[in-house]
Amino acid sequence: MTTRVLLADDDPLVRAGLALILGGSDTISVVGEAANGQEAVDTVRSGGIDVVLMDIRMPVLDGIAATAAVLELPDPPKVIVLTTFDADEYVVRALAAGANGFLLKDTPPAEIVAAIGKVVDGEPMLSPTITQQLIRQVTDAAPGQRDDAAALSRVACLTDREREVAIAVGGGSSNAEIAADLHMSVATVKAHISHIFTKLDATNRVQVAIAMHDAGLL
Q1: Helix H segments across the chain?
Q2: Which of 36, 104, 131, 137 is the most buried (most CB within 10 A)?
Q3: Which residues lie closer than 8 Å to 138 by C-beta, 6 or more apart?
């Protein structure tokens, strides 16, 4: 199956470069471009998009607001944000808005193609180190606001097995690593993660990690 990608960046040279990179893949098709966040939202609303590569800093509507708006649409695509700086404030805000991961703009072409395949398959886009950095940034930005009772209530809906998987997700483990550690198939891990996302109203693994951290389980 071909993955249909929308390129959202206010720099036409960046869009052209990404289109050239992705055009060499047999599994990816660039089906649209947007020069600002509002254009990205409007294009996604029209349908036919599987993944959005979303620049963070754009005019009219920035990538963070655009990500939030896209993910509120019915059957939304995956969103990968593009940034210049690794794990900066904007990345944290984009992931909090529900982005499925992020890519640095100088990421090698083969890794960009692989990253798109990963988010489509529900695999993590963030290393354990980056996940922990992002959790620290989120929690440090809101000191004294942790509500253990509310956080525990939120994760109480998880089964024991789902809680084990969610803790592993929070630790930055890949699906394959979770499968090996918990002695289950990768397909079963994916099913558990899908249930966890639904129960915690999460769209990415960082949101799951933050929920487990707030509940005192990480």
Answers
A1: 12-23, 37-45, 63-71, 89-96, 109-121, 128-141, 148-155, 160-170, 175-182, 186-200, 205-214
A2: 131
A3: 92, 96, 210
184 vs 54: CA distance, rounded Å: 34
- C-alpha distances out from residue 16 to 5, 21, 190, Å: 13, 9, 34
Round to whole Å and give the CA distance between 197 and 24: 33
Give the Cα separation of 79 and 100 in Å (integer): 5
| Strands, sheet with 78-83, edge to edge from the N-terminal-most edge strand | 28-34, 3-8, 51-55, 78-83, 101-104
Nearest CA-CA partner of 2 in 26, 31, 32: 26
**Which residues make Cβ contacts (< 8 Å) with residue 191, sequence separation at least 6?**
none
Report the SS3 class of residue 13.
Answer: helix
Tokens of 136: 């620290």
Strand partners, 83: 104
User: pLDDT-based confidence at 21, cuts 50/70/90?
Assistant: very high
Q: Is the pLDDT of residue 53 over 80?
A: yes
In tens, the pLDDT along 72-129 reads: 999 999 999 988 876 567 777 888 788 888 888 888 888 899 889 988 887 767 666 6
Buried b (16+ CB within 10 A) or exposed e, 196-217: bbebbebbbbbbbbbbbbbbeb
Q: Classify 143 as helix, strand or coil.
A: coil
Structural domains for the chain: 3-121 (3.40.50.2300), 134-214 (3.40.50.2300)
Q: How far apart are CA 119 and CA 94, in angstroms?
A: 15
